[in-house]
Specification:
single chain, mainly alpha, Arc Repressor Mutant, subunit A, 3 domains
Amino acid sequence: MDPGAIRLAAIALLARRDFATGELREKLRSQGYDTSVVEETVAELSEEGMLNDVRYAEHFVAYHAQRGHGPVRIKSDLKAMGLSGDLLENALASGPDWSVLAREVRIRRFGEEAPETWAEKSRQARFLQYRGFSTDHIRTALGPDFNLDP
């Protein structure tokens, strides 16, 4: 298979949006390109700086945090793309204050008033958990008297 064709396909994909290394590798393989040539092409693009997992992870965290997603969900999504643990931790550390974001997301969804009943607190906690916030972030967002362990 022609390495030039694979490189052009990879560059065409990167022109549309940024990709993680593993994600681009899988995309090219799914298009039927030879695995060994795909590996070489992806390595070359990484060396040239056209493909950068650190940059991708930081942009991914910033974008998804802006959309109100928490670190647990973002980490899971990035891990599924094949990014390493250290890279994930550094990218999440460069993100916003997750407790503050959890509170902002709660207020955006449910209003300024703190939940009064246990049922309402549970409902809001489930929402924040679905969005990818940890137990500590949820406790902070719902107030100091909230405890997930009844």
